[in-house]
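[job 4471] stage=fold_predict status=RUNNING
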Amino acid sequence: MKKITVFLTLCVIAYFSYAADGVDYTADFVEGSPEVKSINALTFGPEGILFLGDSKSAKVYAIETGDTKANRIETLELSKVYELIASSLGTTKDDISIQDMVINPISKATYFAVALGDGTPVLLKLVDNTFENVSLKNIKYAEAPISNVLAEDAEDRRGRSLRIWTVSDLNYYDGQVMVSGLSNQEFSSTFRSIKFPFAGDEQSSSLEIYHAAHGRYETYAPIKSFTAATVNGKPHLIASYTCTPLVVFPLDELKPGEHVKGRTVAELGNWNTPLDMVVMQKEGKQYLLMANSSRALMKIRFDDIENFDGSLTTPVEERSATAGVDFIALPFVNVQQLDRLNDDNFVLLQRQSNGDLDLLTQSNKWL
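[job 4471] inference complete, writing structure tokens
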């Protein structure tokens, strides 16, 4: 789900480039209390601005955090995250679920989107190993509505809510807030791009992919996790879906109102859901790291994506078999969330064998 993925330069350098571009990103912000009904995804943009994807309200909010003091932090380590969050909220760990986790690329503070058992959304910030509530009352913010959303009572054939997939993942890239999810259109899998600062100019494309584990073309399942990066010299959307195709879309083809077919470059095994992904670099090479619900943390070389010609178009019939671009299963299982800390380190939110949920830092020695 999430996350800011700055892959061409250091985050701090990127921050100063934003500040130097002459854009006042908060000029149109208002002061008040946004009616945030859910926080399904988080990502950071310029100047410490935090974006919240709210499926229930069908909106993206931009929040001025004021969290713009640069810090150099090499590691983040914290045990029993669920217990600490529950304690800070005066409840039990059984009453909370973590929806997303992102690291502010400037301050290196970690932010968590949490849902209480009754659905109440909470935004938390980890400060000196203590969780602090980030108030959404009387703040400076802007909002952008999401169009063509599913009805609040829309359900799939198993009776599960479809409205929650209005925002399945969220990223900020090159002046755009990118949103994956579902719409109420004929081809429901949708990619939306909203220029920031918000100006009411949402652009959306419907998506189609070949799902090798299912042996068919699909237009109804949302992207579960995505990032943006350069592939063969062009900006691409790199996306993964449940059961687990990895698909690339050239960004210049994702035009308003277009129906776009992605290029399926890998089948990473069925009975699995991608949870999070980031791009890391080492010695001039780029790598995709992807956390999964039922598989270990995967490492995929960008060179392999770039060198893979064509697209998968035939079924992978053996249960849990893979095809296309190779990957390496790193020795980290039960990774729930993932984000980039700096050039050399990434952070995992990982469930341990004893049931604890821990925040851990790993280095690019694994790349």
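[job 4471] summary: Residues 2-19 have pLDDT under 50 and may be disordered.
[job 4471] exit 0
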